[in-house]
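Here is this case:
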Amino acid sequence: MEHKFESTYFKSDKKKQTQGPQARSYEWGDKNSHLFFVAIDTGPTYYQYSNYKDPARFLEAYASVPDADRCFFEQIHEGHACNEYYDIDLTLGQVADKSDILRLEQQMFIAFLNARNQYAPDYPLDTTHCRVLSASKNKKISLHIVIPTYVFENNNRHMKAFVLAFKDAWSSASDEDSALLKRIDTKVYTRNRVMRILGSCKFKDRNRPLQRAQWHEPSMNAEDQEFLITNIAAPHTRVRPIAKGSEEGKPVITNRERAHSLMIRSATGTGKTEFVKALVKANKGFNFVAVACRRTLANALGPRLGFTNYQDIKESRIACDRLVIQAESLHRINTRYYGENVILILDEFSSLCEQMTSTSTMGHNHDYNNQILCEFIKGVSRVICLDADLTNRDVQLVKSLRNDVHVIHNTFKPQEGDRVVIKS
């Protein structure tokens, strides 16, 4: 075990440990509710393993690592969600110059894009959806494609099944494109797979770092975290798993393997805020964003839940682990900071919905505020809506954006039956 790069790294020590370094890293990460797992290629035959609270924390540490020491791999923890991703490798018969390499990279990418859209038209792609990395050099074309738009619940089950079914579509491509598509590596979806990170090399091949594809403008302009496979950020679409027994290549709907989102109708004084406090306490590994319809409500919720009030944050863009914010200021949120591990709390939801339709209160941020709220509702881990007067229209709105919604109607009214005696 060694502390470096702002984390604890586990390495092989057969004399002292009954568990391998990967298992010890997982155990330590789960204990600390960490979400981002990495490995370092230390050569010649083994990795060192570690983890960070989230991708942002890793990238902060990674920025200070000298280029010569960058042999980092992202580890896709078994059973965890991942962005759609592909590895494409082609060995050439002879050394190619730079212009030929760039031409072949683009040809491979276009062939991939066409075949992928033909196979899964329900999840369309264009070049702006993709983040493309290259490690091509001399006799080898090597592309790494990450698609943050589409997310799979489980890498080695759902993503793997999707790709194996996609493989059958390659035969319908032209002979030239089909030959290129066959270079898509279908073996990179194994359990706990490690994939190289932007800017890193393999230990035995220090002259071939993984870099942004020069010919792909969206990748040249993207932020570093957009190239991470397990950085699940809003907005995104969940790809429905391919089920056994279904028509091959035909996605079918399955339930989310997680706690449900809740819409709770319950009268004032029935403990809704106490429920939220218990929820926060029980989910220490999650970030929380609470959206209030009124500034006074935000001021009241912050101290009760232990959240940071948006009015106390001086930066123009907000990024903190536990935030309470008034709806009119949603445009200040840095959506890149908040990945999938967010629980969204919408208090006084009926009033909040009415406010979101008001251009007079939202001003020129009306459309952007609504877009952010919708993206959060669709993309976060859970949504909790609370209101004493929750309507069916409110419920249908959230159900149109998510498929995991349960409704709770608490009919108890704490003051019902009480008698008030007025004496003159």
